[in-house]
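Notes from hallway chat w/ T.B., transcribed later so I don't forget. T.B. wanted the structure written out for a chain they're using in a teaching module, and asked if we could keep both sequence and structure tokens in one place. Agreed to drop them here.
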Amino acid sequence: MARHLLPLLLLAAVGLSEGSVQFHVSLRVPRFVEMGGSVLLFCEHSVAREQLHKIEWLRDGRKLFQFVRGRQPPYRNFTTPGAQLDWRHSNERQVMLRNLQFEASGFYSCEVSTETPIYTKASNDQQLTVLLKQRAEPHITGRKPGLYLPGEKLELNCTASPSRPEADITWIVNGKKVDDRLLQVFPGQRTFADLTFSTVQLSLELSEDNVIPAPSVAPGAPPASGLVQLTCLTTIPAFHGFEDEHENHLRPSSVRYADKQMASLTVEVMAPQPSPDPEAAATMNSSASALAASVATFVAAVLAVGGR
């Protein structure tokens, strides 16, 4: 009997021990950091100091910094590709990395271990990306001079400025995100500096559904039925839409973008020529025929007088 109870008692003891050391661990780290900048990796946990054994920070599963309570010295630095450790601002709670390069991108985490009982718990992985922002607004090409006609297809290309990672391109027409079916994405291209950029083409048939009524037209100008307002938005990360889909103006959501550029233009669409009224056309044709007959009679009379 006692022999059968012993394993159960051991399991219960282990369960109580693990239950007694359950604690919270999380790593605070920004999603994006600009190249050459610094980042603070803050490891939050709920372990009392007298129970704490060690804390380790890791990138892609490899140690980059370690704190062991009671060891002299308590801190140990491991080589971190693409970053330099800031000793002045690194301790048992946080690690500061400076002069970040692209190689420092990766998934970061921290692990907290207790002394009694021996127990280790890791935070969730947090992705960090070192970026180089776009240096200019996107470039829109393909617009023809003058007015467009109703039913004509509008084809425009938007090319993002080189960056790393590659900026996402979003077309917005009259304040609304364009359906992906109207877009053609061309493969990204790489520059000599290892930056990338891409181009997205918009193909839009102009109709009453996408033309805004035009304001008053200047005297002497060709009649315009309306305008199409176009915006090319390039963001890192990708565009997440609008706060209110029913609002008819550019109002990005509350998502914070590490990098954002935009370019806009307005296209004028010519008013369609109205079809003539059938009755008016008949009257016009009758008047034209009468006028032609009168002219013919007058010419004949002049010729007759001249013949005399």
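Follow-up for T.B.: Residues 42 and 94 are 4 Å apart (CA to CA). Might be a good example for the class.
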